[in-house]
Amino acid sequence: MTATPPTAGDAVQVGDLGAAYVARATGDARERRRAVKQFRARFDTIEQWRNTPPADQLAASPAARAFAAFAAVGAWVAVDATYVVGAASKWGRHVADRDPEQAARFRLQASSLGFDRLEVDKMWSKLAQISVIAGTTPEALTRAVSVGARSIPNGRDREARTGAEVADHTAVRARCSDVPPRPSTPPCPAGSVAGPVSARDWLGPDR
After folding, report:
1. Mind listing the pLDDT tens digit for each residue in 111-156?
2. Structure confidence at residue 14 as a pLDDT band (50, 70, 90)
3. For residue 125, which of 69, 197, 184, 76 has the smallest C-alpha distance?
4. Residues with Cβ < 8 Å from 11, sequence gap 6 or more?
5. In the beta sheet, which residues pair with residue 195?
6. CA-CA-CA-CA torsion for 19, 24, 30, 33, nearest 10 degrees?
7. Cα separation values, 47 from 44, 61, 183, Å
8. Domain boundaries, the chain
């Protein structure tokens, strides 16, 4: 079930997020407790962390950054793109934990288009980054926001652009003929609706 974002005036508190982060520890939870303490000592609140320049956010300890990623996704806050890319956090896993149904639909649709597991993992990771930058869910991304994937820092945007198209596939169905051919993808039945919108525009001729 996809999580519901907090309403205005009902901001998620670090204490609640910290408790959830510690509760999800698979082993000794002391490291996660230290991570929450380091985050609070440096930034105090999610809002103060969000308003901190990316360079200062990235200067935090790895443990504090790990909790920051969990907290940012859980609090539905939009995060600066420079930080999202530079932090090398597990955005895909956090977004999938928050929105498991969307993650499952994305993987199903991507696999049906012929992408292998590694490609799907990369695309989901990039799409999760875009949704974190926008402060929303993958399926709620608008086309305008998705287009922004082209300008994600470091120039590693192919998976992001492709992932955005697969997300469109789950939300804005189009004719199968709009999907560029892929060797491992079986042909779609005539009249079916199984393709992303304007995929050629996204992927280009070198796909």
Report:
1. 998 899 999 999 999 999 999 999 999 888 866 565 555 455 544 4
2. confident
3. 69
4. 46, 47, 75
5. 174
6. -30
7. 9, 18, 47
8. 14-79, 98-203
Reduce the secondary structure of the chain to three states and give it as a string.
CCCCCCCCCCCCCHHHHHHHHHHCCCCCCHHHHHHHHHHHHHHCCHHHHHCCCHHHHHCCCHHHHHHHHHHHHHHCCCCCHHHHHHCCCCHHHHHHHHCHHHHHHHHHHHHHCCCCHHHHHHHHHHHHHHHHHHCCCHHHCCHHHHHHHHHCHHHCCHHHHHHHHHHHHHHCCECHHHCCCCCCCCCCCCCCCCECCCHHHHHCCCC
- Band of residue 203 on the pLDDT scale cut at 50, 70, 90: very low
Q: Would you say 62 and 91 are in contact if contact means Cβ atoms under 8 Å apart?
A: no
pTM comes to 0.69
